[in-house]
Amino acid sequence: MSNPQASVGRASVLLGSGTVVSRALGFFKAIILAQALGVVASAGADAFAVANQMPNSIYVLVSGGVLTATLVPAIVKSASHTDGGASYVNKLMTMTILVLLGVTAVAMIAAPLLITLYATQWSADQLALATAFAYWCLPQIFFYGLYTILGEVLNARGSFGPFTWAPALNNVVGILGIVAFMLLFGVDTAGERSVVDWTPAMVAVLAGSATAGVAAQALILTVFWKKNGLSFAPDFVWRGVGLRETGKMVGWTFGVVLLTQLSIIVQTNVVALASGQGASVFTMTTAWLIFLLPHSIIAVSMGTVYFTRMSKDHAGGNREGMARDASTALRQIGLFICWAAAGLLAVAFPLSRIFSENFLSVINLGWLIMVLVLGLPAFSAVYVMFRIFLVQGKAPLMFWLTVLQVGVYVVLILLSSQIYVTVITLAVCASLAISVIIQAIVTWAVLRKTLPEVRKSGVASTAVRGYIAAAIAGFIGLIVSNQFGSLTATGYAQESILNAIVAMVGIGLVVTGVFVLLLWIMRVKEVRQLFRQLGSRLSR
């Protein structure tokens, strides 16, 4: 008889390994992009950042969050149909493709208006450059949606690997595009290139390769559909397979996504005030990429597997199994994320050195990373708890909890807009961390009422001990980081990229050792189980 926990572990490792490779490539892509365009005070980089993030924002607003949140439970449930869910999948695919094509067309027509919406205070020249980027980037909307629908169908069928490995191809194509841009048009590490110096060819190579990467990421999944015996036949008869029931969840989930995107519009407008003067849109985008790295590798990879398991438990009426998986997911993911947050906090400045040799840029990016990661454990906890609500069919709770977070965040962002321009982005990052921490605390209180079984599962005590261990380990890591000269322009860690990597390894080892030791002292059972398993294997 197979061990359910072992199967979760194997699937999580498969997803995690794919995410690690994809994120590592994405990390490298961000590094060379920073070298090509500049990290801080680069108006051209900010224009590209707004245009390149806009397709993802629109896609998420229209369908991304809805598809990701509702597809797995719906497809798992449709498997009980006489045709094994094939008709449901064909109808859902047909609807999704038509919607995505329509939205992409409308977005491209409205590109100038959309760019202005995200950066109302920019000059006419910077808006024109961002709009030129947008025309090349907006087709990504369709391919993001196609990737999601193809991948989530594979996930629901238990084929987890392709969905997490496909972004690696995206990043490879993107890297080749950036390298081509650098060879053809040179590098601008200091961000001195004016927005009027950009030519149509430069825009086409940079933005066109970004879109080609997203297209490759989606289209490669069709190969795995065939390998898994799946096929698609357009079906325009959309009655009789339960889409109306799914639509109830979609409505509330859409509300969650809409609120989040509205907050991003406010955020981008405020951060864009610093464009050309200090850390702005591109700098925050880079910090956010680093922030998402551990979340994607740990929370998304492990959470995806547990989400599918909880959906099957709920569909089968196994409430105890669902509660057990929910508790295990929250404890295990929480501990790993706390460790990652402590590590990122400690290595923020040597890590930033990899992106730029300009010490002012390093300091700006480092502070953004440090402030953002304060909210990382809470961010991942909310992600997991929202998936539990979806399994329970309680999407309205997600909406109102998002209202809370967005409300707090927007108020704090608007207050941040009134301070000195060079620290606006730092204040926005702090606002995000504070709002997410508040949301996580309230969400946990609500989850205890909707799933009382988690009260005695040790989730809260494990979280508190994880936070304490992370805070102490991160503080000690900062002391070690200072010894490596991370905080001075002439320090060892700032002299070269190689030195920065050496410093990060040393700091990371110290943080990990302190974190694990503290968890052992505080008698966290997951750590003690891990050591017992290691001891057993070593003795054999």
Write the layout of secondary structure elements.
Elements: H1 4-37, H2 43-78, H3 86-109, H4 111-118, H5 124-137, H6 140-156, H7 161-185, H8 200-219, H9 221-227, H10 243-271, H11 281-315, H12 319-353, H13 359-373, H14 376-392, H15 395-416, H16 424-450, H17 459-483, H18 492-495, H19 497-521, H20 525-539
Helix pairs in contact: 1-7, 1-11, 2-3, 2-5, 2-6, 2-10, 2-11, 3-6, 4-5, 5-8, 6-8, 6-9, 7-8, 10-15, 11-12, 11-13, 11-14, 12-13, 12-14, 12-17, 12-19, 13-16, 14-16, 15-16, 17-19
Structural summary, described in words:
This protein is an all-alpha fold. It has two domains: 41-241, no CATH class; 275-534, no CATH class. Helix content is 80%, strand content 0%. It has helices at 4-37, 43-78, 86-109, 111-118, 124-137, 140-156, 161-185, 200-219, 221-227, 243-271, 281-315, 319-353, 359-373, 376-392, 395-416, 424-450, 459-483, 492-495, 497-521, 525-539. The mean pLDDT is 85.
Largest sheet: none
Determine the fraction of residues in helical runs and give it as a percent range. over 70%
Radius of gyration: 23 Å
* Strand content bin: under 5%
Measured between the Cα atoms of the first and last residue, the distance is 23 Å
Question: Globular, elongated, flat, extended or rod-shaped: what is the shape?
Answer: globular
In total, the number of domains comes to 2
How many helices in DSSP terms? Answer: 20
Class from helix and strand fractions: mainly alpha
Report the count of strand segments.
Answer: 0
